[in-house]
Amino acid sequence: MAPSAIAVTPPTAEVGRTFGNYKEQAAGARAYNKKLEEEGDAHHAKANYLNYLPGWDPDEKHAPLEPFEHTEHGLDADGTFPELLGSSVAREDLTPSIGTILSGIQLSKLSNAGKDQLALLTAQRKVLVFRDQDFASLPIAEALKYGEYFGRHHVHPTSGAPKGHPEVHVVHRGVDDRSGELLLQERTSTVAWHSDVTYEKQPPGTTFLYILDVPSTGGDTLFVNQAEAYRRLSPGFQQRLHGLQALHSGIEQAESARARDSIVRREPVTSVHPLVRTHPATGEKALFVNPQFTRYIIGYKKEESDALLKFLYDHIGFGSDFQARVKWTTRTVVVWDNRVTGHSATLDFSGQRRHLARITPQAEVPYETPFEATPSNGH
Q: Between the CA of residue 284 and those of 126, 128, 230, what are the distances in Å?
């Protein structure tokens, strides 16, 4: 007996075609309902922070990024963290290896010495979660002034931004946005592990993300400790990775933006980075690959490169014992170090607004230091 035919609904035009390994999590201009977000309706409130609603100006164009000298403030920090971990601050570690919640301190009130401590503790704990913060209520220019202490602001080439502030990367899904559901017409999961914009010559370091509107449930952000992922490998495997470089590409992200009627502020670039990079403040080595932007290993044949990268992606993605999950609540700010972590949104909600703003200071050109044999964890 012949098998029954199964009707397959083709993806809608809004989903569009896929772009290699790149998985589009951004909703983009096509899915944005400006009137509903700004005014609300009988069933939905308007957005809480109208000044942070995204815009996409097709006439906005930026020149290629120029190199700059990065100052690593974590090197100047007092490692006892007297301002950041004072007696009034409550600390709760999310997991042994990654993630710490700090309560009883306002980020916006930190002195420069406190910001230095913030850079170092973020590098050590990888992700810091601050509750009950006033960051979202600051004027946008003031928030940007705060962020620029940690490096030159990155202007995202394709994302929406508040009017007049292209340095702010807006993460937004409106109350009528179903693009997460549409993504699942092509993919089995919405999770897309990555470090931000690694296709840049100088990718970001200390990074800030703060909530503006939060769904009633869902929309958590996943983080993974890529320094611990490196340490879990056997010394022989670690040594094999040293000296290897991979190409990271922003081309697919730009193509996806154009397919969704979004914008491309700056023409896409590619960069070559080491598979293992060293953090300048801690000296830790971390895996520096991700399926969103890493394309192939330099000097390897395609099958060789694909096999090694797949192993590393699986190792990172399945490493639940060196990952953390951050649940968003009103007035939360998350700070993480993009040099030693990966992350992903979870698009497991629909029909609710999820609105965040990211400030993304760039850091140094990734570099590696010589291999040093140390016993891997679990051996």
A: 11, 18, 10
Q: State how far Cα 90 lies from the chain centre.
A: 26
Residues 346, 327: Cα–Cα separation, whole Å: 11
Other beta carbons within 10 angstroms of residue 362's beta carbon come to 23
pLDDT at 57 over 60: yes
CA distances (Å), 344 to each of 136, 144, 194, 234, in order? 22, 23, 7, 26
Paired with 207 in beta bridges are 336
Task: Note the pLDDT of residue 14.
Answer: 40
Single-letter amino acid, residue 82: P
Instruction: Name the nearest CA neighbour of 158 among 69, 28, 321.
Output: 28
- pLDDT digit string (tens) for 30-52? 888 999 999 999 999 999 999 99
* DSSP assignment letter at 334: E
CB 162 within 8 A of CB 212: no
Tell me how far apart the alpha carbons of residues 215 and 35 are, in angstroms, rounded to a whole number.
20
Q: How far apart are CA 279 and CA 282, in angstroms?
A: 6
Query: Which pLDDT does position 8 carry in this prediction?
Result: 39
Q: How many CB atoms lie within 10 A of CB 73?
A: 21
What backbone phi and psi angles, to 5 degrees, belong to 237?
-70, -40
pLDDT at 353 over 80: yes
The closest alpha carbon to 108, from 78, 144, 134, 137, belongs to 134
Give the Cα-Cα-Cα angle 183, 189, 191 (nearest 5 degrees). 95
Rounded distance between C-alpha atoms, residue 201 and residue 272, angstroms: 8
Return the half-sphere exposure (C-beta side, CA atoms, 13 A cut-off) of residue 198: 30
What does the mean pLDDT of the chain come to?
92
Question: Burial level of 79, CB count in 10 A (0-12/13-18/19+)?
Answer: exposed
